[in-house]
Structures are given as structure tokens and as C-alpha cells.
Write a structure and sequence with these properties.
There is one protein chain. This protein is about 40% helix and about 15% strand. The protein has about 375 residues and is an alpha/beta fold. The strands form three sheets. Strands 2-8-7-6-5-3-4 form a seven-stranded mixed beta sheet, with helices on both faces. A three-stranded antiparallel beta sheet has the order 9-10-12. Strands 1-11 form a two-stranded parallel sheet. Helix 6 links the parallel strand 5 and strand 6. The protein starts with a strand and ends with a helix. Bound molecules: pyridoxal-5'-phosphate.
């Protein structure tokens, strides 16, 4: 059966060149990167080369990069780390209503422990208004955290503008860039950020490795206690293979980003145009222009996203209804509710996310089959009958 993977926002396959770069670190260069002998030093070189690659890709300095176990740890580290370092100065954090749970959950955890959290609303296209952030700042605000692009609807936020506001008020600014690094340009100075989270498995690296960029001078407590790896900022034996893989993935993105973004955004725009032409009663979720090049998200009214997903899966096509982390939950996505969809419409959402190996043929196959599946499901839907 033909297989078409259109769920790159959930995770990407590892690039074969990444796997090749990692292999020697499993088999020959297996030393502990903290060891002083040659085995250790060889491994350390791999880690430090990756750190340099990543830093230069982000416009950062190597010493501003801390490797972590992925996006979730980086987000938790940023939020709880700043909260612990500056808790005496202030207990207020501002974030948006559409963050990934890796940001919203640590915020809610802090809320139970004496912090005040402002969840700033977004407009219908999922955009945060920087003026709302400005209004929310008090003399107790220590951190603002707004994601660079949303993982479900792809909307790209005015991060540089929000960063400027944060710095005018002397507040740290963190962004979750898990969906943007490797897909659109990300430069820590252009974005005015103090902290930035990223994750290897979202840009053709391995799973279980990520990084937190920490601008020099930012006050932050360590999150993982133990050994003094990462200059005392993050304990645990270096994940050499993962870090080397992440470094190689960065190099490949540096070479391919522009070309891939151009190709994927053409396919994205084609779907955004053709889906409403072929299927009545659909709503585009997310901003029409300020969105990730690889993201398409529609609500298809009168039917369930899960039913569409299962029917597509029977044809070998993998999409998503939203975030993979909440796909087992029956609750509609908090992101879709935050942009004003009703529960019913939110339940009919479908996210298509493309990547390095998506072809025109894949999209043709998807576009040929989606309208047929929707017609079949609507024919059985009591909601569609009553329309
Ligand atoms: N933040 C965003 C925006 C994400 O999309 C994800 C993963 O889906 C994460 C954080 C969590 O990253 P990880 O899977 O590396 O822990």
C-alpha cells in the first residue's frame, strides 16, 4: 500500500546522514564526554562541535547552549529555572493561551505554588497582540513566554516585538521554538529572546535530545541536579550520540531550509486554496499568511477529525487532529477553543504537516482522497442531515 506521511509536526524521520554521523559514537567513540582519557575527549569533541554548529545556526555563542532531553525539558527548565532564580523579585509570569503543554503545565504547577500566571488571549487567527502583553506586565513580572509558532495551527507570533516590550520593562523573554528551528530562520538576536527551546526530532534529528539557549547573564537555576555537566547547568552524562545527531541535523537544515520552505509553502498554499474548493463547509485554522511553511489546518464541519484520520490511515496517509501529545484525550484542543471555535467545530479539525520527503505526488494522493472520505462520512452524519 502507498504510504504518505503528513505528520512532520508530531515528529520527523531521522535523516540518513544524521544516523550516519551518530553511528561511530555508538560503536567507537563511546567514551563518557566528561572523562579525561582519549575516549572521553574524542566524545567531547563531538559534543562541542555540535554545540558550535547549533550556536552559529541560532546566532548565539556556544557557551549559551545547554543540551537537554528535548523540547519538554527545555521549556520546563526555562520556566521553573527563572521562577526559582527570581522568585524573590517577583511571582508573575505571562504566557499565551495557546502554548504547548510543555509550557502551560509548568506554569500551572507554579500557579499552585504561589505564582500568578496571566494567559494572554489570542485573536481568531491565533495571534498574540503585543499590546496585550504590555498591558499585562506588572512590577512583579519576571518572565514572559510566548511560542514562536504554534504546533497545531502554525501561526507565527510577533516574537521580536514582544521581546522588545519585555526588555524595555526589564523582564526575561522565553520562546518555545520547537516548531520553527530548522523550518524558518531563527536568530536569537533578531527575535530579542533571552531563552529559546528547541528539539532535535522536529528537524530530522533523533528523538530525546534538544537544547535550551540561555543568553549570557540570564539568571536561571538548574533544573536537573546531579553532576556538573554543561558547566553545572544541567546534570546527567552527555547524550553524545543524540547531541552529535542534533548537530548534523542543524548542518543539513542550514543547507536546505530555504529550498524546503519554498517547496512546502507552495504545497501548503495549494491545499489552502483547493480544500475549500473541493469540500464545502470548511474553516482554515491559523493565520492565512503568518504561518509555518509546512502547516495546513482545517476544521471540516459536521464530522469528527478522528473519523477522517482513521479513513486516511486505511489508505496509508498519516495526518493528525492536533497535538500528538493530547491525541488520546477526548477534550477538544485548547488551541482551537482559544481561537474561538465551538467544541463541535474543533472536533472536526485536521492538521496536515509536511517535511523533507513530502512530494507533489503525496499531496495529489491526499487531495484525491480527502474529498471522497469527507463525502462518505458526511453522508452518515446526523449533524450534516440537520444542517
Ligand atoms: N513545544 C512544542 C511547540 C512542541 O510541538 C513539542 C512537541 O510536540 C514540544 C514542545 C515538546 O517537545 P519534545 O517532544 O521534544 O519534548
Amino acid at each position: 500500500m502507498k504510504k504518505v506521511y503528513l505528520d512532520y509536526a508530531a515528529t520527523t524521520p531521522c535523516d540518513p546522514q544524521v544516523l550516519k554521523a551518530m553511528e561511530p559514537y555508538f560503536l567507537e567513540l563511546y567514551g563518557n564526554a566528561s572523562s579525561l582519557h582519549s575516549f572521553g575527549q574524542d566524545a567531547k569533541r563531538g559534543v562541542e562541535d555540535a554545540r558550535e554548529s547549533l550556536a552559529s545556526f541560532l546566532g548565539a555563542k556556544p557557551e549559551e547552549i545547554v543540551f537537554t532531553s528535548g523540547g519538554t525539558e527545555s521549556d520546563n527548565f526555562a520556566i521553573e529555572g527563572v521562577a526559582r532564580a527570581l522568585g524573590k523579585k517577583g511571582n508573575h509570569i505571562i504566557t499565551s493561551a495557546i502554548e504547548h503543554h510543555a509550557v502551560s503545565e509548568p506554569c500551572k504547577f507554579l500557579e499552585k505554588n504561589g505564582f500568578k500566571i496571566t494567559f494572554v488571549a489570542v485573536d481568531k487567527s491565533g495571534l498574540v497582540d503585543p499590546a496585550d502583553i504590555k498591558k499585562a506586565i506588572t512590577d512583579k513580572t519576571i518572565l514572559i513566554s510566548v511560542m514562536h509558532a504554534n504546533n497545531e495551527i502554525g501561526t507565527i507570533q510577533p516574537i521580536a516585538e514582544i521581546g522588545k516590550i519585555a526588555h524595555e520593562k526589564g523582564v526575561y523573554f522565553h520562546t518555545d521554538a520547537v516548531q520553527t528551528v530548522g523550518h524558518i530562520p531563527v536568530d536569537v538576536d533578531d527575535l530579542n529572546v533571552d531563552l529559546l527551546s528547541l528539539s532535535g526530532h522536529k528537524f530530522y534529528g533523533p528523538k530525546g535530545v534538544g537544547a535550551l539557549y540561555i543568553r549570557k547573564g540570564t539568571r536561571i537555576e538548574r533544573f536537573l541536579h546531579g553532576g556538573d555537566q554543561e558547566k553545572g547547568r544541567r546534570a546527567s552524562t552527555y547524550n553524545t550520540t543524540g547531541i552529535v545527531g542534533l548537530g548534523k541535523a542543524v548542518e543539513l537544515c542550514r543547507q536546505n531550509l530555504e529550498k524546503e520552505a519554498r517547496f512546502q509553502s507552495a504545497l501548503r498554499d495549494r491545499m489552502i486554496k483547493e480544500i475549500p474548493e473541493k469540500i464545502p463547509d470548511v474553516i482554515l485554522n491559523g493565520h492565512p499568511a503568518k504561518r509555518l511553511p509546512n502547516n495546513v489546518n482545517f476544521s471540516i464541519k459536521y464530522i469528527e477529525g478522528e473519523s477522517i484520520l482513521l479513513n486516511l490511515d486505511m489508505l496509508g496517509i498519516a495526518c493528525s487532529t492536533g497535538s500528538a501529545c493530547t491525541s488520546s484525550s477526548l477534550e477538544p484542543s485548547h488551541v482551537l477553543l482559544a481561537i474561538g471555535l465551538t467544541h463541535e467545530v474543533a472536533h472536526g479539525s485536521l492538521r496536515i504537516s509536511m517535511g523533507r520527503w513530502t512530494t507533489v505526488d503525496d499531496i495529489n494522493y491526499f487531495m484525491d482522497n480527502l474529498p471522497k472520505i469527507v463525502s462518505k462520512l458526511r453522508a452518515m452524519s446526523p449533524l450534516y442531515d440537520k444542517k
